[in-house]
Write a structure and sequence with these properties.
Strand content: under 5%
Order of helices and strands: EEHHHHHHHHH
Oligomer: single chain
Distance between the termini: 53 Å
Strand order of the largest sheet: 1-2
Structural class: mainly alpha
Number of helices: 9
């Protein structure tokens, strides 16, 4: 696929108003996630009334964008934003970090759980199951935009991306969407019924995402403003390694808290 054949990132134009595929992917991710939460509520894995789900999703949206933007500004591109403070909030120019999004959604989840006098894990496990498909939609948005492409390759999977030069590159967005989104969702959905206590799903989400993203980063072009660390690893891989380590600590803590899974109690 060459540059002239690439997708138009604008789905629909209505005068000055543009509806972009990338924005649509985010909307789809939250809509699908909301439906999954309602399913989890039906089977009582979601521990509070179903009517609270829309409020929770709103909290997640706010937390996600704040966390994603702050992490991108301060971790991924402070050399630029330190000299252009006025652009820090110019989200429409691009620049969001998944790891920051997770941190922001975790904070929103902690606040929401505290409001309802629940443990963090009781809501976070639901968020992990419902949020995984959103990773797929997000990566499809990256693919349509022709951004976050992979490294140069001569394999059959190579594609020429706009802005990526004349050489074929790995479609790393597709690799991530399938592994972090679809495969990870299938794993989390299967284990949420089988875990004996809350917290296992959250731990497996961090472990699974960290492993898949760490692996795909070997095919993905590193951020131009950061490059490689220790001549081999990207910032994404460093953050994923931290996620993997954290997953084991969370699992140990969850086992200690031993908050029973209601789906196991019913058995």
């Amino acid at each position: 696929m060459n540059n002239t054949q690439w997708f138009d990132p604008v789905l629909l134009s209505l005068g000055p108003l543009e509806i972009r595929w990338y924005g649509l992917m985010y909307v789809l991710g939250f809509l699908v996630g909301g439906q999954i939460l309602k399913y989890l509520a039906t089977e009582k894995f979601w521990p509070i009334p179903k009517e609270e789900i829309d409020k929770y999703v709103t909290w997640l949206i706010v937390g996600m964008f704040i966390g994603a933007r702050l992490a991108y500004v301060f971790i991924y591109n402070w050399d630029y934003y330190g000299d252009h403070l006025g652009d820090m909030f110019a989200v429409w120019k691009g620049g969001l970090s998944f790891h920051g999004a997770v941190a922001g959604m975790c904070l929103a989840t902690w606040m929401f759980a505290r409001k309802h006098k629940l443990h963090f894990f009781q809501i976070a496990d639901c968020m992990a199951v419902a949020g995984a498909p959103g990773l797929f939609f997000g990566r499809m948005g990256n693919f349509i935009n022709g951004e976050l492409y992979g490294r140069v390759t001569d394999s059959w999977a190579g594609m020429v991306f706009p802005g990526g030069g004349p050489f074929p590159r790995h479609p790393s967005q597709l690799y991530e969407g399938i592994s972090e989104g679809l495969i990870l969702f299938a794993i989390l959905f299967l284990i949420h019924r089988r875990q004996k206590f809350y917290g296992v799903v959250s731990s497996v989400f961090l472990l699974g995402y960290g492993f898949f993203r760490f692996t795909v980063e070997f095919f993905r072009e590193p951020d131009s403003q950061l490059g490689y660390y220790m001549e081999y690893f990207t910032m994404g891989q460093i953050l994923c390694f931290i996620m993997i380590l954290a997953s084991f600590g969370i699992l140990k803590y969850a086992k200690m808290k031993n908050i029973p899974n209601p789906l196991q109690i019913k058995k």
